[in-house]
Amino acid sequence: MVTFHFTRDLEFFGLLPSGTTATGGWAVFARMIAGFFIFLSGISLVIAHASGFRRKSWMTRLAVISGAALLVTVATYASFPNQFIFFGILHCIAACSLIGAVFLRAPVWLLLSLVLVILGANAFWSLDLVTSSWLAWTGLGNTTRPSLDFLPLVPWLAPFFAGMAFAKALPVMRYDLPLPSNRLTHYVIWPGRHSLAVYLIHQPILLAAFWVAIGLTR
After folding, report:
1. Could you say which of 45, 123, 143, 161 has the lowest number of CB atoms within 10 Å?
2. What is the pTM assigned to this prediction?
3. Is residue 24 exposed (0-12), middle (13-18) or buried (19+ Cβ within 10 Å)?
């Protein structure tokens, strides 16, 4: 994610040709990153509630992610009002977490069936069930507005359900091996334990660094 945004910032500041990250391998890379994030969120949901639904913990996490998503919307609207993020990856993860809670006790076969239905609908059916751009987040229509980041539920709910199915089919809790307690281990696992913070602060840091670097070279 940081690598992709670093490259996009190079494009934003005119150091790479316009459209570099929107085409070819970079576009595929961006989708792989987003899909992996959402897939891991599905795994995390199952792990967090393996011994029973922890409502307070789930509500706290949902509130934090929703608040961060709102912050992203406000910040991008202030900076890029014509392309602000109204349903990006954090919005998608929050919505998937809400839906996923309903399917926490669903068997693997049902979750995988839902994955196939969602992917099939996105790939083979002409989805034009809603016409309002305000409902574009569902992925059930062809009317949307420009956005710096847009991940509608169809098809992005599919990797979330796939993550849930994976966690159920291969109980990853059994493979939670103890890690050595040292400074290197702490540094390595810190980004994973604070992934939301990394997501929120890395881009402002990169943009500020580019702005300073370009200013110093002029």
Report:
1. 123
2. 0.89
3. exposed
